[in-house]
Design a protein that fits this description.
- This protein is α+β, with helices and mostly antiparallel strands and 169 residues long.
- Helices cover 37% and strands 18% of the residues.
- It has one domain: HIT family, subunit A.
- Helix 3 packs across helix 6.
- The protein is globular, with a radius of gyration of 15 Å.
């Protein structure tokens, strides 16, 4: 399905993520506030839908424990475990939605969205080259997808099922 797009109010978004507030990922792990749907959670990992998705099949993966530095806040074993989980999410995502290329990256900064998280996004087949890569992930240029709650719920259920059936080793 082709979803309509809405413009992102960049100034409001910047104010929201850089303003004084509790860590949104820690809050999400604790209470699941409106606007972000938790797709999967175990003792160490959290998978949730972004509030402003630019692709159908876009999720965020974070450690449940608050960490801010992508590498230095993890022992080698912890980092490898987290990346193994990101790999598992990517495999499951590719089973759930058509995927020409899977994008994996960690974004955020000390000024906003400090809690380490990975963006895992499935680029669907047929997207023109100029709309791929970083362009596919930036709502500032193209807006974000307005996906119905029903479709988000169905996607979440399918991804949860794929994660549950995937090999955890």
């Amino acid at each position: 399905m082709i979803w309509p797009r809405a413009p992102l109010d960049v100034a409001a978004y910047v104010q929201e993520v850089t303003g004084p507030r509790p860590c949104f990922i820690c809050r999400l792990a604790a209470e699941s506030p409106p606007g972000h749907e938790v797709v999967y959670r175990d003792q160490r990992h959290l998978v949730f839908l972004p509030r402003y998705p630019t692709l159908e099949g876009y999720v965020l993966v974070a450690p449940v424990e608050h960490r801010e530095q992508v590498v230095s806040d993890f022992s080698l074993g912890e980092y490898v475990e987290l990346q193994s989980f990101v790999h598992q999410v990517g495999r499951a995502l590719s089973e759930v939605v058509p995927t020409e290329r899977l994008y994996l990256l960690s974004m955020g900064s000390q000024q906003g969205n400090r809690h380490v998280h990975w963006h895992v996004a499935a680029l669907p087949p047929g997207v023109p080259f100029e709309d791929q890569q970083i362009s596919a992930l930036t709502a500032e240029r193209t807006g974000y997808l307005v996906i119905s709650e029903e479709a988000r719920d169905k996607f979440s259920a399918r991804l949860r099922a794929a994660l549950s059936s995937s090999d955890r080793s």
